[in-house]
């Protein structure tokens, strides 16, 4: 993509004037550096998307400081028919938060108040940071059902773009009971916030803001457990893989179990619990399971390198799980590796077969409820070669998710049908939904 879409200057100027009058000049900017910062994410880590960059350029950035002000900003943009791209901390990796049609980037990260801590939930404005919510819940003797590996992301960003995280072994994905309610703004003139609970909230999840802009989110909590960071290492990655099912079956259920080959583990931030040249297993375990986990490691031929108490240690393990180890690998060899999300028993039962599908392939593995999941990293040659491996993985019983694209892929037909009602002008995050996305794909996978 070379010619970036934009909105004509008169509409932009008129919207700026309205936003400044309603919200104040300090939360509205057209500064070139601010526009550039609001127009990028982690897409450069994908060699597929890197070939297509840049994907869009903001023309206005607004940073409301409350849920009410988010609603004001959305209403103003709709009246001026200016596209709206919502943004949290900008930690996405595949262009979902890039303003492909230009217009307004709605940065929600300053609307971050925790509003209520209930017996089994916590409610906050969409810009509240997930780790702050976890700590708030902890002070009340509770914990979040889950939080993302990027613990500093916002709750609105997580539920709009994420799927699961630390805690998913026990509690599944975010649409499986974690998000209990949302407040949403539709892209219609003078829209008022609407409160959606239970099943009615689900169509607004993992939709990248295309079905509505989230202003508040309520998520589930559970009793706080005594978690420990557990770090072990092995001569071979096969030994690590053999423990995915036994670790997932520990009772109480672990909050996280991650494993990597020595090559990937060696790119992680230096840590005495991740010794050089050895395959790594990292887990967040209830203290009641430490003895059994130690026995499992010893029987598999490994060793326990450390057990650490304290939230600072467990969140560090979270930040080195899911896609993060592959990101560290990619940073160590820029442009050389692509990755796929993979799921299935073959990750354990036929590791060699899975890793033989692509050149120099390496699996990052995670224990999960039901079946193991992971990220498969391999040498990048072309998008066509990546696609060619999908059928071979499927033949092994491996489900794949292609992360190198920005279109809504969670119930996309449902999202498109809802957006036709909630966003009749197609102003919400254009390029990310249904037919709109096809306009932006180019050579995209």
How would you summarize this macromolecular structure in one to three sentences?
The protein has helices at 9-23, 32-37, 47-50, 67-79, 130-139, 155-161, 168-171, 174-178, 237-241, 244-248, 262-265, 290-299, 311-318, 324-332, 346-349, 351-355, 383-395, 412-422, 434-438, and strands spanning 28-29, 60-62, 84-87, 104-107, 114-117, 121-125, 142-144, 179-185, 194-197, 213-223, 227-234, 256-260, 279-286, 303-309, 337-343, 362-366, 373-379, 399-401. With 445 residues, it is α+β, with helices and mostly antiparallel strands.
How is this fold's topology laid out?
Layout: H1 9-23, E1 28-29, H2 32-37, H3 47-50, E2 60-62, H4 67-79, E3 84-87, E4 104-107, E5 114-117, E6 121-125, H5 130-139, E7 142-144, H6 155-161, H7 168-171, H8 174-178, E8 179-185, E9 194-197, E10 213-223, E11 227-234, H9 237-241, H10 244-248, E12 256-260, H11 262-265, E13 279-286, H12 290-299, E14 303-309, H13 311-318, H14 324-332, E15 337-343, H15 346-349, H16 351-355, E16 362-366, E17 373-379, H17 383-395, E18 399-401, H18 412-422, H19 434-438
Parallel strand pairs: 2-4, 3-4
Antiparallel strand pairs: 1-2, 5-6, 6-10, 7-10, 8-9, 8-10, 11-13, 11-14, 12-13, 12-16, 15-17, 15-18, 16-17
Helix pairs in contact: 1-4
């Amino acid at each position: 993509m070379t010619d970036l879409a934009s909105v004509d200057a008169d509409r932009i100027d008129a919207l700026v004037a309205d936003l400044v009058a309603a919200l104040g000049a300090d939360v509205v900017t057209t500064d070139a550096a601010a526009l550039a910062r609001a127009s990028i994410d982690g897409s450069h880590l994908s060699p597929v998307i890197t070939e297509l960059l840049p994907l869009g350029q903001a023309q206005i950035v607004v940073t409301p400081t409350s849920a009410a002000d988010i609603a004001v900003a959305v209403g103003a943009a709709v009246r001026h028919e200016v596209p709206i791209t919502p943004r949290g901390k900008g930690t996405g990796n595949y262009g979902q938060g890039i303003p492909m049609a230009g217009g307004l980037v709605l940065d929600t990260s300053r609307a971050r108040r925790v509003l209520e801590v209930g017996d089994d939930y916590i409610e906050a404005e969409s810009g509240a940071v997930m780790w702050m919510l976890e700590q708030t819940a902890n002070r009340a003797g509770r914990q979040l059902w889950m939080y993302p590996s990027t613990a500093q992301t916002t709750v609105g960003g997580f539920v709009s773009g994420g799927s699961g995280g630390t805690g998913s072994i026990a509690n599944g994905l975010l649409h499986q009971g974690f998000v209990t309610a949302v407040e949403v703004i539709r892209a219609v003139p003078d829209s008022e916030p609407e409160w959606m609970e239970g099943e009615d909230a689900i169509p607004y999840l993992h939709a990248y803001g295309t079905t509505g802009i989230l202003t508040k989110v309520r998520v589930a909590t559970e009793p706080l457990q005594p978690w420990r960071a557990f770090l072990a290492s092995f001569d071979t990655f096969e030994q690590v893989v053999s423990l995915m099912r036994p670790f997932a079956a520990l009772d109480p259920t672990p909050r996280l179990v991650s494993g990597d080959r020595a090559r990937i583990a060696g790119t992680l931030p230096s840590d005495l619990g991740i010794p050089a040249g050895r395959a790594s297993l990292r887990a967040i375990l209830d203290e009641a399971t430490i003895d059994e986990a130690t026995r499992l490691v010893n029987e598999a031929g490994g060793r326990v390198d450390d057990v650490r108490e304290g939230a600072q240690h467990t969140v560090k393990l979270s930040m080195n799980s899911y896609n993060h180890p592959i990101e560290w690998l990619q940073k160590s060899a820029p442009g050389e590796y692509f990755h796929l999300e993979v799921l299935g028993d073959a990750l354990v039962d036929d590791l060699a077969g899975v890793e033989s599908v692509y050149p120099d392939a390496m699996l990052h593995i995670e224990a999960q409820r039901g079946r193991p999941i992971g990220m498969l990293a391999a040498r990048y040659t072309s998008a066509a070669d990546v696609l060619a491996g999908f059928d071979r993985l499927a033949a092994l019983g491996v489900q794949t998710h292609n992360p190198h694209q920005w279109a809504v892929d969670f119930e996309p037909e449902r999202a498109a049908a809802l957006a036709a009602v909630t966003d009749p002008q197609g102003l919400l995050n254009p390029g990310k939904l249904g037919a709109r996305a096809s306009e932006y794909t180019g050579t995209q996978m």
